[in-house]
Each structure stands twice: as structure tokens, then as C-alpha cells.
Amino acid sequence: MTEAKRLEMLKRPAGKVDVVLDTDTYNEIDDQFALAYLLSAPEKLNTVAVYAAPFFNMHSTGPEDGMLRSYDEILKITSLIGWDHPELVFKGSRSYLPDETTPVPSPAAEDLAKRAMNYTSENPLYVVAIGAITNVASALLLNPEIRERMVLVWLGGHALEWPHNREFNLHQDIAAARVVFGCGVPLVQLPCMGVVSHFSTTEPELRYWLMDKNPLCTYLAQHTIDEANAYAKGKPWSRVIWDVTTIAWLLDEEEKFVQDKLIPSPIPAYDGHWASDPTRHMIKYVYAVNRDPLWEDVFGRLTK
Predict the structure, then answer these.
(1) Which residues partner with 127 through β-bridges?
(2) Coil, strand, or helix at residue 243?
(3) Helix (H) or strand (E) holding 104
(4) Structural domain contains residue 287
(5) Which of 40, 177, 187, 197 would bridge 283 by S-S if both were Cys, CB 3.0 to 4.6 A apart?
(6) How far is 62 from 180, CA to CA, in rounded Å?
């Protein structure tokens, strides 16, 4: 792919586009918001598949268990919003990449490796990823040709200026992150701490705007409040709803929600930091989030 073609593909999409979401939905509470926000915008975003991503933390016994729990949570959220397409929900990787050249086959990776071939650089498939990037990296390794037919929008890594890069999505599978940052696929990165960490909410706000508006909104609000209170243990809290910002980038033709710029693709190092090489291909890097107008859009869409 030429750099000129990559830069053209990295422009924010105009008109309606096809979208795949790769999500570790059971990991915490923001993936549920992102999935619901995506499905609330059918006039702009046509959801053609949802993939369950692996994760391992206190909510799972290992990457495979995390993926399976996420698969079930995807079905719960899609049921609450009335998106009745279980045939478009795919189980993902049961482990992380063993190295940077060996894919982990799964229904999700195999679907993406095949599905993206129906698109072109002029009409790409938009792949939104909000978990460990294992499924997407595996698809790129299974079929490298798809990198010229898709645009990857990934929430992963911390801001380049952050003192370390041990961010959950990236650090779970650094090999996979190195694949997607190094292969040349058109990539939009939304860093967590230092950028997307500005997109937070609180219990009073959730109760005012979402609680009892509809079953989906009540579930999202109550689940967030319960999770946050369990973590805060009686102390004041706000909770970042990170993953929504990836969907916002796709919807944001007028750049009201997030701002971005072009930078040389950074290199996720195995020591928990970013490495740099100014000669690398360019990616889009989101550097600011406008919290209030984005929450206005999210609350408005979810409560319709």
C-alpha cells in the first residue's frame, strides 16, 4: 500500500459504512456502552459482525473464559437493544498470540480474514477493536491482503507522553499489538491514560440521564454504578467509559467529539514502553476528547 492511499483511507468516513466490533464485553462496563452506542446509529454505521475478544482479570479465569463470557454478554446487550442477529456474533481467540508470526485461529479471526475481502481501499471495512487485539492480528496474519481493505480503529496503549505503556488492552497481547502497529494497516489509535481517560461519568449523572429510561439504559447505569461502588469501597468515584470514543470517531464527521493528528506508527516495546522510528508509516492518533458533546450524543441515542 502506498502512503498516499493509507492517508486517504485514514480520513473520517463520509456516508454510511460497514463496521465490525471486536470486544471483550464482560471485562468491565464500557464495552457494553460502546456496543449499544454502535447499534444505536444504524443510519451511519451498519454493524456486520461482532467478535468476542479474550481477556484475563478478576472477571475471568483466563483468556478463553473471558472470551466466552464476553460472547454471552454481547448476546445480552444485543437482546436488550433489539438487534436480533446472533448469527453475526462470533467467538474469538482462546489464547493470546504465541509470537508475532503465528495466528490463533478462531471463528472471529477466520470471519474477518474472509469478510474483509469483500471490500476495497475505496470502500473499506471499518474494524473497531476495544480489547486485546488478538483476533484482528490473527486475521491479518491469516490473510495479509486484508490490510488494504480495512481501517482499524483501536482503543489501546496509553498516550505517548505517559510514563509507561502497560495498558490493559495492549499489554495482554503485546505480540498482537506489534503486528497491527507494524503491518501497515490503516490504523486509528485512541490512547487510554492521558487522552480517553477524560471521558468519564458519575453515579448522579447516570441516574439522571439513563436510569429507568428503558431496560438497556437501566442495565448500563446499574451495572456501572455497582461495579464502581464495589471498586471505590465507599469513596468518591468517577468512571471512565473509554470504549465509546472509538464509535465516536466513526460518527464524528464534524470533529465535535475527538481530535486527531497523523504521527509515525509507534512501536509497542516488550518492556512496557513506546519505542519510536520517524521513518515508519503514518497512523491517526487521537489526542483529545470533548467530553460533554459526546455524552450528549450518547445519552440522546440510548434513550430514544
Answers:
(1) 20, 152
(2) coil
(3) none
(4) yes
(5) 187
(6) 23
Q: How crowded is residue 218: how many other Cβ atoms within 10 Å of its Cβ?
A: 14
Total domain count for the chain? Answer: 1
Evaluate if pTM is beyond 0.90. yes
C-beta separation of 163 from 273 below 8 A:
no
Q: Give residues with Cβ within 8 angstroms of 231, minimum separation 6.
A: 237
- Tell me if 127 is assigned to some domain: yes
Separation of alpha carbons 209 and 206, rounded Å: 5
- Buried residues in 233-245 as b, exposed as e (16+ CB within 10 A): eeeeeebbbbbbb
Give me the residue label for grid cell 490512547.
Answer: 191
Q: Which of 209, 284, 225 is nearest to 252 (CA)?
A: 284
Non-local CB neighbours of 125 within 8 Å, separated by 6+ positions: 18, 19, 20, 48, 115, 116, 118, 119, 149, 150, 151
Q: What pLDDT tens digit does each residue of the chain (304 aa) get?
A: 899 999 999 999 999 999 999 999 999 999 999 999 999 999 999 999 999 999 999 999 999 999 999 999 999 999 999 999 999 999 999 999 999 999 999 999 999 999 999 999 999 999 999 999 999 999 999 999 999 999 999 999 999 999 999 999 999 999 999 999 999 999 999 999 999 999 999 999 999 999 999 999 999 999 999 999 999 999 999 999 999 999 999 999 889 999 999 999 999 999 999 999 999 999 999 999 999 999 999 999 999 8
Q: Give Cα 115 distance to the centre of its chain.
A: 18
CATH number at residue 132: 3.90.245.10
Find the domain containing 93 and state its range: 3-199+241-291
